[in-house]
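User: Run a structure prediction on this.
Assistant: Running it now.
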Amino acid sequence: MEYQSNLAVDPARGDFVSACANIQRKSIRTRCSLPFGIPMLCGDARYREDREPDSEVISGGAPGRDVWFIRSGILRLQRHAVDGRRQILSLFLPGEIIGFEGEFREGVSVETVKQSGLCRMDQRKFDTILNRNDELRAELFRQKQDQLDRLHWLTWSLGALSPEQRLCAFLALSSRFMPFQWLPDGTAILSMQLPRADIADLLGTTVETICRINRKLSECGVIEIKDPSHFRILDLKQLTSLGQIKGGFDRMVRGIVERRSRLDDLVGPASGSPACSCWR
């Protein structure tokens, strides 16, 4: 994934002239990447279904006829406790496929975190393709394993780590699936695409605690807060160490990094019966 930075550096001050809000993601058109029979560019408006932030994509327990390929954006798996408090159970990222029958139980839902590009696929047609394609089945197995790893880590961290450690780990992991721009001085800019309320509900804490920890990390010289959505990461190794990720970092993010390029190789021969409803 490539990103384009419009940050300007003032040589005299050694600091940024403007805020970090100008880090922008390059618009890259990629193949739908799944063997529907007809190669498509999901980036074209007529083939892609765009969803606004906080749009419900899947309601757990409700019968569904579609699976969803996430082309861009971030989706969250969530539920609400009896007292009304929301808990975010996991995140789904570009290149992943969700919505299989029985995947989500009643009481949970999947919503978009930000503007997201999705492909809606007829589940029966997709199952037919899946039964004929060993490579695609293997890719889906790897995806589900990665999702379980993230869920297991989050469950473990909620019981074993402090809120500060959880936030450090999350910021370090975010460097692999959110816009992240290395700078000549060895520091980097992270563009945080999750609102603070989502981060708090994911990490089992409060917005106030998130703000307090960010200020503490800034005072300790680990990060620099440019604005609520942009952080200058001064020491990624220290951030990773504070998050207690250790040797599991590469294992947890490898699938995220490799998935987009791996799916590009799975376009099959023409069949004339596309499974993607974006095509209809």
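The first strand starts at residue 3 and ends at 4.
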